[in-house]
Design a protein that fits this description.
TIM Barrel; 16 helices; Urease, subunit C, domain 1; Imidazolonepropionase; alpha/beta; seven-stranded mixed β-sheet
Length: 416
């Protein structure tokens, strides 16, 4: 009998993609009475519990007879690093005060920029670490974190250094993205765009991706084109906030660039779904933001499906959409966007991994990272069906069972 570090089983229901990316209608693997053998940080075998349980002895075992087991959740779009909050602006929105007026009064994103710039490095490290532990409680095992609340170049570099700070002992993997968020109010926007393009070498090594907020009131298509061109030349992966507030041609940029993910897409023309598919991009949808904006707009899910675009889901955690819970994004994807429960699960695991350029996670198969969630639900449909409860029983990250508090240990040997 082989000895491994972790056994999970017997499992009531195991659900995983068979390959990546996953497109609507693709097959999935659904197994009952399953088992998973993990050694170190990798999955080494998946099969029936009769086979796995008789073949391996584990240093610890997680029984899951009445549970669902899936790959760990992956959140590919967050604004996790900022200081302050804007809860009072919710009441203004309910009163019908337009966002432009909120900005004029000193609120909105520039208010968050001011609070973030005014925070110390230690304060920002503490904020980031606490949020990383919080998202892990809800089953997130890999997360993208954008800069964007510094705007001025030195502040953006400061935020990216904090995201990369080795002293932040995060329980999960973090993917840093340089977000070119909004133009500064006290600088010519043309000069600012030129400065961003000329400064990308200073960001190299601090960010895996460059993301641009291309939209009405943010950056124009032409400005975005220049930034993406320079980022691509320097080897950054490309991401894009596109067609959220209005369609001004941002999603058309997939004709010109290899863009890993186009995000938001509330105003995406249906015919552009074909362009996204042809470009090999992922569409990352953000239903929590739709709710927080109180928007009647919806991304064209049926058109994206029909074109064969892989769909991912993100939380879009920010001062405007305050939810660290990827399960909530999954629930809303069904109830707001009409996405099927299996589609939601694939969007939050394998397709989210694919959008971030990972090919080693998001799937429960031999050779993949042992990023796994054991759920307090009998089957995958409950992930969309039941609202508002944290349905996690256990989170395994790289083969280690996570504790839920920053002060606790990461690995628990008492996993059986």
């Amino acid at each position: 009998m082989g000895r491994v570090s972790l056994l999970i089983g017997p499992i009531g229901q195991l659900v995983t993609a068979k390959s990546m990316p996953w497109r609507y209608g693709d097959q999935v693997l659904i197994m009952e009475n399953a088992g998973i053998a993990v050694d170190g940080n990798k999955i080494i075998e998946v099969g029936s519990w009769d086979t796995i349980g008789s073949k391996y002895e584990g240093e610890c075992r997680i029984p899951a007879e009445e549970s669902l087991v899936t790959a760990g959740l992956i959140d590919p779009h967050t604004h996790l690093l900022f200081s302050g909050s804007r809860e009072d602006e919710l009441e203004l929105k309910l009163e019908g005060v337009p966002y432009e007026e909120i900005l004029r009064r000193g609120g909105g994103i520039y208010r968050t920029v001011s609070a973030t710039v005014g925070a110390t490095d230690n304060e920002l490290r503490r904020i980031l670490l606490n949020r990383l532990f919080e998202v892990a409680k809800y089953g997130t095992t890999t997360i993208e974190v954008k800069s964007g609340y510094g705007i001025e170049l030195n502040q953006e570099i400061r935020l990216l250094r904090i995201i990369n700070d080795p002293s932040i002992k995060a329980p999960i993997d973090v993917v840093p993205t340089y977000l070119v968020h909004v133009p500064p109010r006290d600088m010519d926007r043309g000069e600012y765009v030129n400065m961003v393009m000329g400064s990308l070498d200073k960001v190299k090594g601090l960010a895996k991706f460059v993301d641009v907020f291309c939209d009405e009131g943010a950056f124009t298509v032409q400005e975005t084109r220049g930034i993406l061109r320079e980022a691509s030349r320097r080897g950054f992966g490309l991401r894009l906030h596109a067609d959220e507030i209005a369609y001004i041609g941002c999603s058309d940029l997939v004709r010109e660039f290899s863009i890993a993910s186009l995000d938001h897409l509330l105003n995406l023309p249906e015919q552009n779904a074909r362009l996204i598919a042809e470009g090999g991009s992922v569409a990352t949808l953000l239903p929590v933001t739709i709710l927080s904006l109180m928007s009647s707009k919806r991304p064209p899910v049926k058109a994206l499906r029909g074109a064969g675009v892989p769909i991912a889901l993100g939380s879009d955690f920010s001062p405007n959409s305050w939810s660290l819970n990827m399960q909530y994004a999954m629930e809303l994807a069904t109830y707001l966007l009409g996405m099927a429960p299996i589609e939601v699960l694939m969007a939050a695991t394998v397709n989210a991994a694919y959008s971030l350029g990972f090919r080693d996670r998001g799937i429960i198969q031999p050779g993949y990272l042992a990023d796994i969630v054991v759920w307090d639900t009998p089957n995958y449909r409950w992930l969309s069906y039941e609202l508002g409860r944290n349905k996690v029983l256990a989170v395994i990250k790289r083969g280690a069972v996570l504790d839920s508090t920053p002060m606790g240990t990461v690995i628990s040997k008492e996993c059986a």
